[in-house]
Design goal:
Shape: elongated
Order of helices and strands: HEEHEHHHEEH
Strand content: 5-15%
Largest sheet: 3 strands, antiparallel
Number of strands: 5
Helix content: 40-55%
Structural class: mainly alpha
Distance between the termini: 77 Å
Length: about 180
C-alpha cells in the first residue's frame, strides 16, 4: 500500500510539472499574437464591440455575417449539433437560402456561399469569406447608392489572408469601414 501511495504522489508531481510547462507555453504563445490573447475591442459611435465575436446585422445596408445557432449570445456559445442529413436542419438551411435570395434578388442564379446559410461550430463566427461578402455587394450598392466597384475595393482592403487557412473578412470591421466610406 505504501508503494502505491508513493507512486501516485510521484505521478501526480510529474503531471503537475508537465501541465505547468504546457500552460506556460500556451500563455507565452498567446502573448505573441497581435491582441496578446485578449479580445479585440472596437469603440465605434460610443459603443464597445468585440471584433472576434459575431454580430447580428439585419439591415439591408450592411453586410450580414454567418447565422448563429445561439442567437449571437457569447455566454451560450454552441453549434446546433444537427448533421447534414437532419431534416429539420435541412429545412432551416433551405429557409435561409430562400431569405438570402429574396434579400439579394440580383444574385438569383449565383451559388450561395455556404457560410451565409450555415452556423459555425461556436455560433459566433465573426468572419465570412470574400465570396460571401461579394454575394451581398449589389444589394448594399443599391441601398446605399454607392458604386459596386467602391464596395468591391472595400472588401479587397478588408480581406485578411492567412498562411494556414482561407482568406476571410471580419463582418464588423467591414461594416464600420462601409459606414466610413460615405
Amino acid at each position: 500500500m505504501k508503494n502505491h501511495i508513493l507512486s501516485a504522489l510521484r505521478l501526480s508531481l510529474v503531471m503537475l510539472v508537465i501541465v505547468g510547462i504546457y500552460l506556460g507555453i500556451v500563455y507565452a504563445g498567446s502573448k505573441v499574437l497581435p491582441t496578446q490573447g485578449n479580445a479585440e475591442i472596437i469603440n465605434y459611435k460610443g459603443q464597445k464591440f468585440y471584433a472576434n465575436i459575431g454580430q447580428n446585422f439585419t439591415s439591408p445596408k450592411y453586410f450580414h455575417g454567418r447565422p448563429s445557432a445561439v442567437d449571437y449570445n457569447a455566454a451560450g456559445s454552441a453549434g446546433s449539433n444537427k448533421g447534414p442529413s437532419n431534416e429539420e436542419y435541412l429545412h432551416v438551411v433551405q429557409k435561409r437560402i430562400d431569405t438570402l435570395k429574396m434579400q439579394n434578388p440580383e444574385m438569383e442564379n449565383v451559388k450561395v456561399p455556404v457560410e451565409l446559410v450555415t452556423a459555425s461550430g461556436s455560433g459566433l463566427d465573426p468572419d465570412i469569406s470574400p465570396e460571401g461578402a461579394s454575394y451581398q455587394v449589389k444589394r448594399i450598392a443599391k441601398v446605399r447608392n454607392i458604386s459596386v466597384e467602391k464596395i468591391e475595393n472595400l472588401i479587397k482592403n478588408q480581406t485578411e489572408t492567412s498562411l494556414f487557412g482561407p482568406s476571410k473578412v471580419n463582418v464588423l470591421k467591414l461594416n464600420i469601414a462601409l459606414d466610413q466610406l460615405q
